[in-house]
Amino acid sequence: MVGVLDCNSVGFIGLGAMGAPMAKHLATKLPGEVKIFTFDIVETIIDGICAEYPDKVYKGSSPKDVAEKSDIIITMVPEGAHVRAVYLDENTGICSTDISRKLLIDCSTIDTATSLAVKDHIVQNFPTALFYDAPVSGGVIGAQKGTIAFFLGCAEDDPNLPRLIHLLGVMGKQIIPCGGPSLGLAAKLSNNYLSGVIAIACSEAMNMGMRSGLDPRVLAKVYGAGTAQNTICDQFNPVPGVCREAPSTNGYRNGFKVQLMRKDFGLAVDMARRVKADLALGDAGLGVYDGASKDPRCRDLDSRVVYRYLGGNENWQNKLQK
Ligand code: NAD
Questions:
Q1: Which residues participate directly in catalysis (predicted)?
Q2: Dist. CA 119–CA 99, nearest whole Å
Q3: Any idea what the Cα angle at residue 159 is, between residues 115 and 74, rounded to 5°?
């Protein structure tokens, strides 16, 4: 057993855009004797990371196989259906083997109901196992830099918190305990709802101001100085050319894909309905992200491409030069 982490092996399932860099931090920063077992339905991904870290990262044949070999198992897959398959499949799932006393952490952004169903299954069948939701924020670049934030579904006085902070701290910067099971997800979904609504409102406000004759840089300054101040406007402005580093200025590339925002926004609207929180902007916002994620001019681009979807002028610099 190794230090506060109390484990000899960590499993990682789902090594996509986020999972792969997260697993690489574990591979390079965990003590030499800790082995990492990996699984992804795309076999070449696993072969690649195993070749990159020989004698450290090993290939598992299924989530069950990874669970059998690991003391701690982290999962990072796209949606609730994938989380169900990874944990609950009768033949290949994590829970199809004895996971007593193991620590399981799901970092996927999914609906709270699925997360609670997985937790209930684990509590009933393996009372000594621990399961936490821990969705992340900070994007692919944050995952690569090791600066992502974890919204952890656990109480501040949970006795396992120091161990969780130690482990997640290897892959990210901020670890925020959100109160209890599924509350990490509830926090993440409400956060993305807010960020998604702000991006639409910022696009609309910029568009109406620019059509009235204003330079978007002046508009951004005005919002920044007043009550409309927000990070989307200041750092991720949807209008190309306002923020030098923003995805919009770089062809809306390397950001948070509009389809992912559509997924998270939809999950947030569903959650609000379930907990009976009225939304004035929910259906309208969902319509925008749904439309943009299907629009070939916007698909696969940063979610702030809603500015383009809503008819914003991207060539304003040409017009100003005339
Ligand atoms: P991704 O599609 O790049 O990666 C997901 C990986 O999971 C893929 O490699 C896929 O093959 C694998 N997978 C799917 N089903 C599987 C299964 N049954 N068993 C094993 N592996 C399986 O997605 P991503 O961008 O890494 O996102 C993962 C999660 O993180 C999502 O829930 C997403 O919403 C969330 N997230 C993403 C970002 C981002 O900027 N990409 C930011 C924050 C949170």
A1: 188
A2: 13
A3: 40
Point out the domain boundary residue: 153, 180, 207: 180
Encode pLDDT of 14-27 as tens digits: 999 999 999 999 99
> Tell me, what's the pLDDT at 39?
98
Which residues are catalytic, by number? 188
Query: What is the DSSP code string of 141-157?
Result: HHHHHT-EEEEE-S-TT
Residue 3 in domain? no
Q: What percent of the chain has pLDDT over 90?
A: 93
Q: What pLDDT, in 10s, does the model give residues 280-314?
A: 999 999 999 999 999 999 999 999 999 999 999 99
Evaluate whether residue 131 is within a structural domain.
yes
Could you tell me the distance, in angstroms and rounded to a whole number, from the CA of residue 50 to the centre of ligand 1? 19
The confidence score (pLDDT) of residue 139 equals 86
CATH number at residue 296: 1.10.1040.10
17 Cα–ligand 1 center, Å? 7
Q: Choose among 293, 322, 292: nearest CA to 310.
A: 292
- What is the count of structural domains for the chain? 2
Q: Is 104 in the pocket of ligand 1 (CB under 6 A)?
A: no
Nearby residues of 182 by Cβ (< 8 Å), 6 or more positions away: 112, 115, 116, 119, 133, 153
Domain co-membership, 86 together with 223: no
Radius of gyration of the chain from its Cα atoms, rounded to whole angstroms: 21
Check residue 260 and give its pLDDT: 94
Enter the pTM of the model. 0.93
Q: How far is the CA of 215 from the centre of ligand 1 (A)?
A: 39
The protein residue whose alpha carbon is closest to atom 1 in ligand 1 is 16
pLDDT < 50 positions in the chain:
1
Question: What is the position in ligand 1's atom list of the atom closest to the CA of 19?
Answer: 26
Domain that holds residue 116: 9-180
Assigned domain for 249 exists: yes
Query: Is there a single domain that holds both residue 277 and residue 174?
Result: no
Same-domain status, 42 and 113 = yes
**149 C-beta closer than 6 A to ligand 1:** no
Ligand 1 centroid – CA 18 distance (Å): 7
To test the ligand 1 pocket, which listed residue (61, 118, 260) has its Cβ within 8 A of the most ligand atoms? 260
The answer to whether residue 2 sits within a structural domain is no
Edge to edge, the sheet with strand 148-152 lists 136-137, 148-152, 172-177
